[in-house]
Design goal:
Zn(2+) 1 binds at residues 56, 58, 113, 132. The structure is a single chain. The chain is α/β, with parallel strands linked by helices. It has a single domain (3-245), classed as 4-Layer Sandwich (Metallo-beta-lactamase, Chain A). It has 9 helices and 14 strands. The protein has helices at 35-45, 59-62, 65-72, 147-158, 173-180, 187-201, 211-217, 223-226, 232-244; strands spanning 3-10, 14-21, 27-30, 49-53, 75-78, 90-91, 97-100, 103-109, 118-122, 127-131, 134-135, 138-139, 165-168, 209-210. The chain has a 6-stranded mixed β-sheet with strand order 1-2-3-4-5-6, with helices on one face. A hairpin with a 3-residue loop joins strand 1 and strand 2. It is globular. 46% of the residues are buried.
Amino acid sequence: MSVKIVQFPCLQDNYGFLVRDEQSGAVAAIDAPDPHVILAQLTALGWTLSCVLTTHWHADHAGGNALLRDATGARIFGPREIARHSPLDVPVDDADEIMLGATRIQVLNTGGHTLEHVSYYLPSEDVVFVGDTLFALGCGRVFEGTFPQMWESLCRLMALPDRTDVYCAHEYTQANARFASRWAGAPHIERRFAEVAELRRRGVPTVPTQIGIEKATNPFLRVAELFPDMAPAAAFEKLRTAKDHFTG
């Protein structure tokens, strides 16, 4: 890989990510859930922050932008919705490209959780940072957008190569597995639930996952299989609504 990715826990269940282009030394933070933890990681690594790539406006993603910019001079990239809540230097949207040194980062519009949520895809590295759009064995709540919009965003992510590593912003996998177990229906899915349980028992992150793994085991990406008589967007709405009310 031409980049190095460092992942670390933040807040209650967030992950922070630092991405370093090995050729130039340029460093990006993906979101800013806890700026103090991010600054401590930068100091320990001896890295200098170049930019913050923000996925959406929620405080556990954009709340540290101001402090990081003040402390490091890093430029803040993100969807325009960010500007209502925190500093924003460079607005981005679907099909925009960002250069982190020699590494090209594509912006994907993955709205639905928030209206203008974006993901950051590194095609040369087979890596995507998805914020709160897609989770291991789950997906984000539809807070501001519509269910068809969120389904379109998930389809955009499903179109990436199966080998793509998916860096979700939260450690929700074991909780997601409790809901997903209702829709298992295949031994390989049950095996994944067991693997997740063992990883969490050992305190090991379940992030990153991969697009291919999610397409095979995540119920929100399997709605055409689970509800073959429904239009996929309608089936997604049915399943996401059921998850919203799930208390298991």
